[in-house]
Design brief:
Layout: H1 30-34, E1 48-50, E2 55-61, E3 69-75, E4 81-85, E5 103-106, E6 112-122, E7 125-135, E8 141-143, E9 153-158, E10 164-169, E11 172-177, E12 184-185, E13 194-196, H2 201-206, E14 213-215, E15 221-228, E16 234-239, E17 247-252, E18 262-269, E19 275-277, E20 287-294, E21 300-307, E22 312-319, E23 325-332, E24 346-347, E25 352-357, E26 364-369, E27 375-377, E28 385-392, E29 397-402, E30 411-416, E31 424-425, E32 434-439, E33 445-451, E34 458-463, E35 468-474, H3 477-484, E36 492-499, E37 502-509, E38 520-525, H4 542-552, E39 556-560, H5 571-575, H6 584-599, E40 603-613, H7 615-626, E41 633-637, H8 648-655, H9 662-668, E42 680-686, H10 695-706, E43 712-716, H11 729-744
Parallel strand pairs: 38-39, 38-40, 40-41, 41-42, 42-43
Antiparallel strand pairs: 1-2, 2-3, 3-4, 5-6, 6-7, 7-8, 7-9, 9-10, 10-11, 11-12, 13-15, 14-15, 15-18, 16-17, 18-19, 20-21, 21-22, 22-23, 24-25, 25-26, 26-27, 28-29, 29-30, 30-31, 32-33, 33-34, 34-35, 36-37, 37-39
Helix pairs in contact: 6-7
Length: 750
């Protein structure tokens, strides 16, 4: 239930005349945040490192070719630029304009450029595209996939030797010679229900497996996933905005306790299309293969094989020629779930691989021998490795993000791959906030971006390991100027003791003219599902600006991370939520609110509201329904009202199987407590949401009607989970939300 970052009226309840806000001089307006003249957050250009990082490339508008873009090479140390590929090189014969560059990649030898253009949406991403190949020597440009439908190829990728390109077309895997010769299928059984080389809908959402194939190091084979979705329940969305008749949009989508896709993995020989399937024990519809990659040589594949409960991750070695497999390592959790690893990095000539595990109670970086017999902990201590950023065997270091002393912040550390296990902080001391890095091969250079709750990101180039700032790239001066001109107070970060030794992280924004002798309305922003963290010292984009605007108008705005939030506070913290999603976290939220009201007499208990999106929308519903004496008003966006309606991988990972945890599914689903509603509720959903289906809103509305509970609702036609598509959608939604709060949670100190 990740909310990525609502005009159809459906049962909209009148909310009466809208209030007039006493807007402070210089205060933010909704148009400044969501309107046509809103200040846009400046972002660093999408970059691709070249070689060992001494240069990188970006795409920028051409100065000489109208409507075209150049690919520019930049020297990392100096910033000196030169045009590597001119827009004029990317104009097909007879075309009026150059290709639009949606994405691109270089061949391993640097001779060819592969350009994706005319990209179209496929599920969450714009993965459907046309692909063109440019020979940088001869300047010859030709389109791959001759005879294939436009904008229908996916995930094209060079072979390691640079002679071939592989891609998926209509659920089959193809290869095509760089030198010409046309497409050649390697699989031929792809259909609406048989999928080769791409993940099914929930693998893409939960295991981030969009592209589901990988080249062997010698370019002779391709390892790939095959999904048989026959028997998986079909969910139908309805598209109503496209014409005279509605259009059903079918999606094979396994829900908790239902049939999963049958998954096979194998390798296909590029020369003759011969496929070898790996032999995996157990029912292919009761197990997952979240990751598979080549094991540092062309005859073996390393496979992560996970049971349906996702509490056992077997690491297998598969023989690419025979399909035989053997287990070399097991990561498991006796009382909760385990996470799949990103593809391991191979070290010491293939004798060992990298691994992240929580086996000692913290998420740590290990080096595991190829036979799985030796585990070498390289990041000891009572802290979590948030993510691995670079493993550089040549220099002998692993770079990773962690925050040993404050889970609301993020810093770069490193640890040696051999010798005494220890950690070193790389991010300089005295720089609070959240730091992110894109480290070049060789770990000598990195793009460094950092922000705080009230400071938008700055991005620049740093050299490693000294972290010496070389030059700036993005400062976001326009956003800083907007913030400097608006009245505000610094956000307070603090911890709330809810008893039993549990202390929850929280933040609060106060009005600029805050008077502690008065009582103010409190609006809580909530998520508190295992997939996210709201209490973080980082820039939150338009949501932060909206919260600032509300504070300027007389609200206290706060957020609390319950137990189970994805915060680097250890395995026990994160997994305390197991089998009780929606139950434990909503109880923690209520306890935190009671503690805040006891400690902070300026909170008006008659004016407490809560809002959230996706999992936060479910938490909002649970708050209003389960603790109606505490919360007066709530806004729930794209909310899973019933856990049985979400996808099987996510829900079963954290809740177990419905037949084995019927009570947990029942008590964690807010729809089952809808009859307790006493406050004001606005529910918002996109009818084209393929993640948390619009079905959730309709079933919840149906239940509330049966309970004779009054509520407001808004359906946004054909909008997806982000409710962001189309002109003015975000402005419309947040205007509605602001007005709803003004009506039901009046601002200002009393």
């Amino acid at each position: 239930m990740r909310f990525r970052l609502i005009l159809l009226l459906v049962g909209m309840v009148s909310i009466g005349p809208l209030p007039s806000f006493a807007q402070p001089q210089g205060g933010l307006e909704l148009d400044q945040i969501y309107g046509a003249q809103a200040v846009e957050l400046e972002r660093a250009e999408t970059t691709k490192w070249l070689g060992r990082g001494d240069h990188y490339t970006i795409v920028q508008p051409s100065a000489t070719t109208p409507s075209g873009s150049d690919i520019v090479r930049i020297e990392t140390a100096s910033g000196v630029r030169d045009v590597l590929v001119a827009a004029s090189d990317l104009r097909p014969d007879g075309a009026a304009a150059p290709l639009t560059i949606d994405d691109y990649q270089w061949s391993p030898d640097g001779r060819y450029l592969l350009v994706a253009t005319n990209a179209q949406r496929f599920r969450r991403n714009r993965a459907l595209a046309d692909y063109w190949l440019l020979d940088l020597r001869s300047k010859a440009l030709h389109r791959l996939g001759a005879g294939l439908e436009p904008s229908s190829m996916m995930h094209a990728e060079f072979s390691p030797d640079g002679r071939l390109v592989a891609y998926v077309y209509r659920n089959n895997l193809y290869v095509e010679p760089v030198a010409g010769g046309g497409p050649r299928p390697l699989t031929n059984d792809g259909s609406d229900l048989i999928v080769n080389g791409i993940g099914d809908a929930v693998y893409e959402e939960e295991f981030f497996l969009a592209k589901a194939f990988t080249w062997s190091p010698d370019s002779r084979r391709i390892a790939f996933w095959r999904f048989d979705t026959e028997g998986v329940g079909t969910f139908y969305m309805i598209r109503n905005t496209g014409g005279q008749y509605s259009e059903p949009v079918p999606l094979q989508y396994p829900k908790p306790g239902t049939t999963l896709s049958a998954v096979r993995i194998g390798t296909v020989a590029v020369a003759d299309g011969r496929t070898t399937w790996f032999r995996l024990e157990g029912d292919p519809r009761q197990n997952y293969v979240p990751r598979m990659s080549w094991a540092d040589r062309p005859d073996e594949v390393i496979i992560q094989y996970m049971n349906r409960l996702q509490n056992r991750n077997e690491v297998l070695m598969g023989d690419a020629e025979t399909g035989a497999t053997r287990r070399v390592f097991l990561d498991e959790d006796a009382t909760a779930w385990v996470e799949a690893n990103d593809d391991p990095v191979w070290l010491d000539g293939g004798k060992a691989f990298t691994w992240l595990s929580e086996r000692d109670g913290w998420r740590h970086f290990y080096i595991v021998s190829r036979d799985g017999q030796r585990l070498d902990l390289r990041t000891p201590g009572e802290f979590d490795v948030v993510s691995v950023e670079s493993v550089d065997e040549e220099s002998g270091w692993v770079y990773f993000i962690a925050s040993p002393d404050d889970p609301t912040r993020r810093y770069l550390f490193r640890a040696p791959l051999k010798g005494d296990a220890r950690i070193e902080r790389v991010t300089p001391q005295g720089l609070p906030g959240t730091h992110a890095y894109a480290i070049a091969p060789g770990a000598r250079w990195a793009f460094h971006s950092f922000s705080t709750f009230h400071e938008p990101p700055r991005t620049g180039v740093v050299s490693l390991p000294a972290h010496a700032a070389t030059r700036g790239i993005v400062d976001n001066e326009d956003m800083r100027a907007l913030l400097a001109a608006t009245p505000r107070q610094e956000t307070e970060f603090f911890r709330i003791d809810i008893g039993g030794g549990v202390r929850l992280d929280a933040w609060m924004i106060r009005p600029a003219d805050f008077d502690p002798s008065k009582k103010y309305p409190l609006l809580l922003h909530v998520y508190s599902e295992p997939a996210g963290q709201t209490v973080a010292d980082r820039w939150g984009g338009d949501r932060t600006l909206w919260h600032m605007m509300l504070a300027q108008r007389g609200y206290l705005v706060a957020s609390v991370d319950s137990r189970g939030a994805n915060s680097p506070r250890g395995r026990d913290w994160r997994k305390s939520i197991y089998r009780q999603v929606g139950i434990l976290a909503s109880a923690d939220q209520a306890a935190a609110l009671r503690r805040m009201m006891a400690d902070r007499p300026y909170i008006d208990p008659e004016r407490v509201g809560i809002w959230g999106a996706s999992g936060g929308g479910a938490m909002t519903l649970n708050a209003l329904f389960r603790y109606p004496d505490l919360y007066r008003t709530g806004i729930a966006i794209a909310s899973p009202a019933n856990q049985l309606l979400y996808n099987a991988i996510y829900q079963e990972r954290y809740m177990g199987l419905p037949d084995e945890n019927a009570e947990g599914y029942r008590d964690g689903s807010p729809i089952n407590f809808a009859g307790n509603l006493r406050g004001n509720l606005l529910i918002i959903h996109g009818t084209g949401d393929d993640n948390v289906h619009y079905q959730n809103l309709e079933q919840l509305a149906d239940r509330l009607i049966a309970e004779n509970k009054q509520f407001s609702m808004m359906a946004y036609p054909d909008r997806t989970h982000s409710i962001s598509e189309g002109p003015n959608t975000r402005l419309h939604m947040f205007t509605m939300m602001t007005d709803y709060l003004g009506e039901h949670l009046p601002p200002g100190g009393r």
